[in-house]
Structures are given as structure tokens and as C-alpha cells.
What we know:
Elements lengths: L19 H8 L11 H10 L1 H24 L15 H13 L5 H16 L16
Protein name: Bifunctional protein putA
Amino acid sequence: DTPRKSEMPAPLLDRKPFDEEESDDLIGEPRSENSQMSSDTLSSTRSSNAPKCFKRSQQKAAAILEKIAKRIEQPIETSSQNPIRQPYDAFGQHVAEKLRSLPLSMVPFCEKLIGEALFLAELEQLNVNSRIVTDHNS
């Protein structure tokens, strides 16, 4: 039972799951020349000069947190800038194009028939034999 040599634990910020280069890439900003140390140089600097490196890590962490806070405060893009495609969007656009190409007098009738078809579909009253019947005598 010999007493162990007390060792100072590695700073929490030095044990992050990514290195300096990846953290800059995650933020989306290019790295400066001064911050491009190899991991070997960085490791040797940490072991020989722990307090200074810890201070540098704290400053780096503070800068990253500040950038994250700025990103969070930015307004979210509207759906028109970043549309999420939903099922049937393409078909809806196709129907809209067809309606635009029809004579204006036919558009209300098409809208009525489409609306009725959707209504009957909600009631589960449509099947493969469903038809549009037009009385040509009136």
C-alpha cells in the first residue's frame, strides 16, 4: 500500500470528443493559421503547460458557445426558403398547371368535381368503378 503520486486531472475541455479542427468545421468558419497546431504539438503543450492551455481551452469553449448562441438567435428560415416536400406535392402542382391551362369557364367545374371526389374519398365512397357522368342533353 504505497501512496500514489497525486496527479492533476485533465481539464474537462481537453477531453472533448472532437479535436480543434473538427470543432471549427462544425461551426462552419475557417480556421486561422495560429489555431492549426498538430495534435502532437497540442498534446505536448497540454502536458508541459497545463494552466495556460486550460485558459486557452476555456477561451476556445467560450468562443464556440458564443457562436452557438448567435446561431440560435438567428431567425428560422421560412418554409418558402426551405420547403419540405410532402407526399402529393408534385401531383398538386400538376393539377394546378392543368387548371391554369384550361379555359377560364371550365376551371370552376373542375374545382367542383375535384372537391366532390375528395369528399367522396373521405367517406370511402369511391372505388375503381367510380365515374363522372355528364348529361349532354342539358
